């Protein structure tokens, strides 16, 4: 019986959300196992309060990439004496850290020259990028364990405190009024995934004129200046820039009460 399982999550927010269908059903494939998630500290909030997860271990931001990061991951993971590890990032380093840490069974996709570091190496679906990222992670679980499970859309678990914090933030701008709004995440880490400033500017104007909604912008601290520019170019009073001002869970709480969400 596999008693202790560790899952190395992706490194970016969107990909981590796409990992949730797999992680949320990990117990269906490994009944009774203790589940640990290893994730970058800046996005660990995605996995908090999740009933499928027993422990969230945070990787310091400076140790997510590079050779030094491999050794840091080895030090972190070796303390757990894990029976099995799922390695979602396709990098050599992610697999090397688990191998050096002594994780007994290491499961992941063949990529980046790491086949020999995995005890169960699965080929990526062909052609490349043939599967949506969320299905790619979910099917790693199904294919490796040779089981069938129904796919369930990503779900992030919020508690009463999360909802209250989100409502308190909205209250600063809307008071006690129940004002309809939508949320826009206007940037992405990879430039190839960005829709573009001009497109979002035009979309915001159209949403305001067509649906009479307020707009809330969310994102990282680094994206705050671009959000400020969007506010200026789209009429100011109808657009609120919260980029860099909310935690992941606060953002999720705000999104949960929005009319709709737009993102890359």
Give the DSSP E fraction (strand runs of 2 or more residues). 15-25%
Shape: elongated
Reading the helices and strands in chain order gives EHHHEEHEHEEHHEHEHEHE
Q: Spans with pLDDT under 50 lasting ≥5 residues?
A: none
Major sheet, described briefly?
6 strands, parallel
Coarse structural class: alpha/beta
Task: Give the structure's gist in a few sentences.
The protein is α/β, with parallel strands linked by helices.
Commentary on this structure:
With 264 residues, the chain is of the alpha/beta class. The protein has 2 domains: 4-145, Glycogen Phosphorylase B (Rossmann fold, 3-Layer(aba) Sandwich); 160-263, Glycogen Phosphorylase B (Rossmann fold). 38% of the residues lie in helices and 17% in strands. The protein contains 10 helices and 10 strands. The protein has helices at 13-18, 20-24, 26-29, 67-78, 92-101, 133-145, 160-174, 197-211, 224-233, 248-256, and strands at residues 4-8, 34-40, 55-59, 84-87, 105-109, 120-122, 181-185, 214-218, 239-241, 261-263. The strands form 2 sheets. The protein has a 6-stranded parallel beta sheet, sandwiched between helices. The chain has a 4-stranded parallel beta sheet with strand order 9-8-7-10, sandwiched between helices. The longest helix is centred in the middle third of the chain and has 15 residues, at 160-174. It is elongated.
């Amino acid at each position: 019986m596999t008693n202790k399982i560790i899952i190395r999550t992706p490194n970016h927010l969107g990909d981590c959300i796409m990992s949730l269908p797999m992680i949320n059903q990990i117990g269906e494939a490994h009944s009774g196992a203790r589940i640990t998630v290893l994730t970058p500290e800046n996005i660990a909030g995605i996995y908090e309060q999740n009933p499928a997860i027993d422990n969230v271990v945070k990787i310091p931001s400076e140790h997510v990439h590079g050779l030094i990061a491999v050794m840091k991951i080895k030090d972190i993971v070796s303390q757990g004496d894990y029976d099995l590890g799922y390695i979602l990032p396709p990098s050599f380093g992610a697999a090397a850290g688990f191998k050096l840490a002594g994780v007994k069974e290491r499961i992941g996709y063949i990529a980046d020259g790491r086949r020999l570091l995995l005890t169960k190496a699965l080929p990526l679906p062909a052609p490349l990028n043939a599967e949506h990222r969320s299905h790619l992670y979910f099917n790693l679980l199904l294919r490796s364990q040779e089981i069938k499970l129904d796919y369930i859309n990503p779900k992030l678990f919020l508690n009463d405190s999360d909802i209250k914090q989100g409502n308190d933030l909205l209250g600063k701008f809307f008071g006690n009024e129940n004002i309809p709004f939508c949320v826009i995440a206007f940037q992405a880490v990879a430039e190839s995934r960005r829709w573009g400033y001009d497109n979002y500017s035009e979309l915001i104007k159209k949403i305001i004129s067509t649906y009479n909604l307020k707009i809330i912008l969310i994102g990282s601290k680094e994206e705050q200046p671009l959000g400020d520019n969007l506010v200026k170019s789209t009429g100011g009073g109808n657009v609120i820039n919260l980029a860099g001002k909310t935690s992941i869970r606060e953002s999720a709480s705000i999104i949960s009460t929005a009319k709709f969400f737009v993102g890359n």
